[in-house]
Fold this protein.
Amino acid sequence: MIPLLVCDDSMMARKQLIRALPLDWPVHITQATNGEEALEAIRQGHGQVVLLDLTMPVLDGYQVLSRIRDEGLKARVVVVSGDIQEEAQRRVHDLGALAFIRKPADPDELRETLIRLGLLRPAPSTSPVTGVPGRHDPNLRVNFRDALREVSNVAMGRAAALLARVLGVFVQLPVPNVNLFEVSELHMALADAQRGERLSAVCQGFIGESIAGEALLLFHDAESAEVARLLGWQPQGEHEEAEMQLDLASILIGACLAGIAEQIDVRFSQGHPQLLGRHSSIERLFQLNNRRWRKTLAVEISYAIEDHNLHFDLLLLFTETSIARLTQKIHYLMD
């Protein structure tokens, strides 16, 4: 049996990846939920082959690859990530990863990659295919919040790749936050995070198969000049600045919603992006719009641009009535 380590902070991602493994690959599976756990497992001999996520708490995938190299650990690593930026793929190869596979892993692509790397010997066509220990582990039970976080993680990776190409930068990705909020609670959490900064915001409604909500993209006024510089724009007034924000919102919101829709097999109809407020505090933005949102399922994503004092805060706010249908869709995806 080959010691195989599957490292991802998402239970759903680990479940999907383990199910995608070739049934004729004789492996003993160990799981890790962050980079520190992964390194300890590798040191103990449980990670001769490693399937590694990039966006994780404690230590991310880049740090794990760096530590493996620095410590001279014997581990052959295939990165499986939702961060599909070209620069991300270049960096992991430079750090010693043997291959990169985008999430969710396609079983055929995973099999072909393992064969190409010499990690799997294809069985003769006449050989029976047997189960692999841990392949259907009953402990791989996924809750809704974890599942939606992983769906959002994959979607934000696709949006980041598009943003990276448009701006010519590398986008640092966070672990998304998923919470059910009363709007007043969301308001307070955001107000505390923004600490009185002046903001502009673009919102875009979406609906499909009884799932509806609004995407809200927050721009920090202090960073507008840097955004314009990266885009090669020279806004002459507020109208052109607003046009720039609407264009960026279309990129980020559209790509993120498309990524979610593809995974849960839904078609979203999207409204036109609209300016929600200009140069306002977060308190003012919510005072203007709190009648539209009562209780909301909120996915919070903050994109940071490497080597620039620049970040974008994206909120996906699903209506309370959408939760039942979202749950059905995600349970179907998990099963």
The chain has eleven helices and 13 strands. The radius of gyration is 21 Å. The chain has a mean pLDDT of 86. The CA atoms of residues 35 and 59 lie 4 Å apart.
